[in-house]
Every structure is written in structure tokens, then in C-alpha cells.
Amino acid sequence: MGQLDGNVAIVTGSAGAGIGQATARLFAREGASVVVTDVHPARTQRVAGMLSEELGRELLAVPADVSDRASVEALVQTTLDRYGRIDVLVNNAYRDIECTVAEMTDEIWHAVVDVCLLGTFYCTRAVLPAMMQQRSGSIINLASIVAWNAESAPRRAHYAAAKAGIQGFTRALAMEVGAHNIRANVARLGAERLDQAHAAGDGGAHGRAAPAGTGRGAGGDRERDPVPGERAGALYHRRGVVDRRAEGLRHSP
Fold first, then answer.
1. Nearest to 35 by CA among 18, 19, 52, 54
2. Would you call 202 helix, strand, or coil by DSSP?
3. Strand partners, 33
4. Cα–Cα distance between 234 and 188 in angstroms, integer?
5. Which pLDDT score, from 0 to 100, does residue 251 have?
6. Given the residues 94, 122, 159, 236, the one annotated as active site
7. Which SS3 state, helix, strand or coil, does residue 175 take?
8. Are 51 and 28 in contact (CB under 8 A)?
9. CA-CA distance, 94 to 28, in Å (whole number)?
10. DSSP H helix total and E strand total for the chain
11. Could you say which of 41, 43, 110, 173 would form a disulfide bridge with 184 (CB–CB 3.0 to 4.6 Å)?
């Protein structure tokens, strides 16, 4: 018996090679019905099939673009049609395109902010009616060291702004939904390790573009950060099923 038996979890950006996929694997191993979602349909199907075979239980594949409201709403409705409830949302999908502010176009700004911040909002808003009706749920949003350490974010002001926005959004959200017995947490996962895990190819639903040789492209830091499962474990604790005292931002009724 796993500690997530009977729970239904959506993990965005879970068809990548890092945090998202490791989180989907861990949650499924602990008994959750997991929805693997990514903007790339073929990759979503492939990873869900791989994990299903590995774990001996079905993981549902639902391609979705978190920056598109209709796509997110379809993701949530498909999950509800299949399982009838949603207990956990992990907002892991992100995008990061290195560019200076002086060179940044509106398109580049929105490409990053719309996935990281708007996507977090869309997914959160879409699952709340079900969580509020069942009076339970856990929402885990991924932040980053770049939100407060400018030295770690050269040419990434848009990404820093989005991740800082996620922190503020989650604080406000936690105060709103606590009365409904819903937890909202930010997972920072320990300074550089979070960004290294992202760089290990877990660009989630929307990938990451970086100049050659920077070590920040897909797979660039895989050698230096080989265990995204550790970060998945941190998300598992922040869900509250293992350690109710886990660090994070939450409001209890």
C-alpha cells in the first residue's frame, strides 16, 4: 500500500527527463493515479507508456499547452472524466530563453512568462473547483533561486520575474484556499540544485533554449546533477503526505 493510494495527481511538464518525470514516477509508485502532460503529444505518450510498463500500472497521457487556457481546461476535464477527482497539481512546466532585456522582444518575454507564470495560474484556476468541492487538495508550484539571486540569472530577467511572481502568487493563493482544506506550497528545492535539475532536460512542456556551451541547454547539467528523484522526493514531502511539517507556504484553516 502506498501513501498516495486513491489520489489523482496532474504533473505538468512530466514528459521531460528531470523533476517532472521523476515526480510522476514517485507519485505513481506510491499509489497515485498520475496524469502525464506535456506540450509534445508523442513525447507525452512515450513517457506515459514507459512509466506504465515500468511500474505495472497505467499512467494517463494527456498532451496540453499550459500557456493556452482552452488546452488546460481540456486537460483538467479529461482528468475529471477519467478519475472523478483531482488531489494534487504539480506546476512543473517551464520555459527559459536566455536573452538580455535590451534585446528582448515581446514575443520572447511572453514565451517565457506565459508558460511559467500564466501557465501556473491557468492550471491552478482550472483544478480549484474540483478541489473546493471535495474540500481537499494540494498545489505545488516550482520556484527558482533566480527569483531572488540576480547573479544566478544572467540574461534571464523574464524567467526571474516569472519565478518571483510564482512565489507571490502562491502566498496569496494559500491564504485564499486554506479555508477549503487545500494546501498551496512553493518548492524551491535547494538553491542551484533546482536549476540544475531543470537544465537536466526537464524543460517540461515547453523546453528550453540556450546558447551552445553555456551548460544550460537540454542535458547540459545532467552529469553534475544526476538524481532528479531527490527533487521529486522534496515535492512529495511538500505535498504533506510524509511530513506534515514540511517547509513551504501553506495556510491551514
1. 52
2. coil
3. 8
4. 9
5. 35
6. 159
7. helix
8. yes
9. 22
10. 8, 8
11. 173
Using DSSP, state whether 249 is helix, strand or coil.
Answer: coil
How many other C-beta atoms lie within 10 A of the C-beta of residue 127?
24
Instruction: Retrieve residue 213's grid coordinates.
Output: 556551451
Question: What's the chain's Rg over C-alpha atoms?
Answer: 17
Which residues are 185's β-sheet partners? 140
**Is the Cβ–Cβ distance between 217 and 210 less than 8 Å?**
yes
Residue 41 is placed in which grid cell?
503529444
- Angle at CA 137, nearest 5°, toward 70 and 165? 60
Task: Establish whether 159 is a catalytic residue.
Answer: yes
Domains and CATH numbers, the chain: 8-239 (3.40.50.720)
- Say how many Å lie between the first and final Cα of the chain, rounded: 29
pTM of the full structure? 0.81
Provide the grid cell at 102.
Answer: 535590451
